[in-house]
Structure formats: structure tokens, C-alpha cells
Amino acid sequence: MNRGPVPGTINQADPLTRAQTAWGADIPDEVVTLAEACTSQSANSVAKRIGYSNAVVSTILGNKYRGDVAKVFAAIRGALMGETVLCPILDEIGRDRCLSEQKRPFEATNSTRARLYHACKRCEHRVQREVTDAS
Predict the structure, then answer these.
(1) CA-CA distance, 123 to 129, in Å (whole number)?
(2) What Å distances lie between residue 2 and 5, 6, 7, 10, 38, CA to CA?
């Protein structure tokens, strides 16, 4: 008994071709960069570099990601395209590092970490803003 897909039915195209097919003519630079990185490395290693899962990389390339695409694009720009931001505590850092610092919880064990936690809450580069209760 043969299991799995019928041979020749799975799209074995390289990541760039797959992304161009899915996104069409208006393919963003971030997707092109992601696809090129996946061509030279494994998708799993690229996913680790940008701080997301392999599934996110796959769905971004296929133009089917339902999450916050802007956050993923910001991580791609930081990790793969070299975009930097001016952090009030750490000075110039990569956009991907900025995003990872925003996600970290408060830690009183390190004074820099504590200052970062408070600075990130009101920073202009913060991606996720706190929602204020209207009631």
C-alpha cells in the first residue's frame, strides 16, 4: 500500500518561485528576502533567525498568514535585512532584537533589563500597544 501524495502532485518549487506565484506582481521586499534566505538555508533555520515558527515562514511565503503580517515583516527586516532602531537604553539595535525585548517580562535581577522593561512600555518603536479599558 502506498501512502502519501501521488508522486508529482506536490509543488516542489523553490521558495522564491512559490512566493512569487502566491503574492503576484506586488510581492513585498520582505517576502523576497525571506524566500531568498529559505533558498540558501533551511526554512527552519530561517524561522529561528526571525523568531517565528517554520509554519509562519511557510504561510508568509504562500500569502496565507492570518496573523499580524506587519510584526513578521518587522522581524524579517531586523534579522535578514539589517534594519535598526534607536533604543533609549541599548542605543542602536536590530529591529528583531527590539521586538524580542518588547516580549520579555519584567526581571529585577538586572538593572538594564528592568530599565528596558519600563522604557519599552512607552517607546515609539513598540509594536503592541496596551489597550485601555473604556468602561
Answers:
(1) 10
(2) 9, 9, 10, 15, 30
Backbone angles phi, psi at 87, to 5 degrees: -85, 135
Q: Where are the alpha helices (DSSP H) in 9-110?
A: 15-23, 29-40, 43-50, 54-61, 69-79, 95-103
Helix (H) or strand (E) run with residue 121 in it: helix 111-121
CA distances from 131 to 101, 128, 134, 135 (A): 19, 9, 9, 12
Closest CA to 43 of 55, 27, 31: 55
Angle (CA) 42 68 18, round 5°: 40
Strand, helix or coil at 93? strand
Answer whether 0.90 is exceeded by the pTM. no
Residues 6+ apart with CB under 8 A from 54: 43, 44, 47
pLDDT per residue as tens digits for the range 11-37: 567 899 999 999 999 999 999 999 999
C-alpha R_g of the chain:
18
